Amino acid sequence: MNSKATSTTVLDVINAHFTALTRAEKQLAETLLDNYPVSGLGSITTVAENAGVSTPTVARMVQKLGFKGFPDFQSRLHQELEATISNPITKHDRWAASAPGTHTLNRFADAAMNNMRETLSQIEPQEFDDAVALVADRKRSVYLLGGRITRAVADYLFTHLQVIRPGVTEIASNASAWPHYVLDMRHGDVLILFDIRRYEQEMETLAKSALDRGVEIVLFTDRWSSPVAKSASKVFRSQIEVPSAWDSSVVILFLVEALIEAVQSSNWDATRDRMKTLEGLFDSTRIFRKPV
């Protein structure tokens, strides 16, 4: 496949062509998306049988998507799967082999800006606004949880949302305690999750449990998309690759800060009153240094 951008995934391609597919091809596409990307890694016969379609249907659809054939289609899936499970050492070795001779600051700046542009080009403003409306609705409780690396971003969002509105809870990192939080979740509440490669299995379980209780799930993930996306009503996929052994949270943090601003502005009068009360508490406890 001659992709226009290396950041385009098979998932993106299927979604972009979905409306143009035949009924049988849509049936196949839905099967592939249901357990993506694993569902496309079997033989062409197995993939066809699992979807309840013929092998010629599989062959036609992958060519319609722009691949040379089924082997080319599977090769892309294997590349994506490898990318999602890469550890820091593998990621370092991959980019270091072809790293340009420019300074680290310049390499990082170029990668971060490209990530920002690509991410924003794929986000629908209305979907972002809908997520803002969910988080700003004070009738809904809001719960947050991040993964091993993204926990810092979840904590950052929690600290700000707690100032802006009541009813915000950060879920403890200990997965054995998560059922206690789910117990308090009500229909219509909001669960904000951060999950990037290598996706954490327990988080998918938490998302399914919350969805069963009618909770709206907002997911911040990477371009390959966490399995949690199947349970989420709002999904924001960010570009995270930079010339490093580690993935970058720059774009995810940008989206979080935009969310914070939008939520506080949606009901500024109530937010301002809450901020004034908090500032009074800070003054009474002398947490911060005051000018002499």
In N-to-C order, the SSE pattern is HHHHHHHHEHEHEHEEHH
Strands across the major sheet, in which order?
Answer: 2-1-3-4-5
Would you identify the CATH H-level superfamily of the largest domain?
Answer: Glucose-6-phosphate isomerase like protein, domain 1
Shape: globular
Largest sheet: 5 strands, parallel
- Strand content of the residues, in percent? 5-15%
- Structural class, by secondary structure, is alpha/beta
> In total, how many beta strands?
5
GO molecular function: carbohydrate derivative binding; DNA binding; DNA-binding transcription factor activity
Keywords: DNA-binding, Transcription, Transcription regulation
InterPro entries: Homeodomain-like_sf, HTH_RpiR, RpiR-like, RpiR-like_SIS, SIS_dom, SIS_dom_sf, WH-like_DNA-bd_sf
Organism: Ensifer oleiphilus
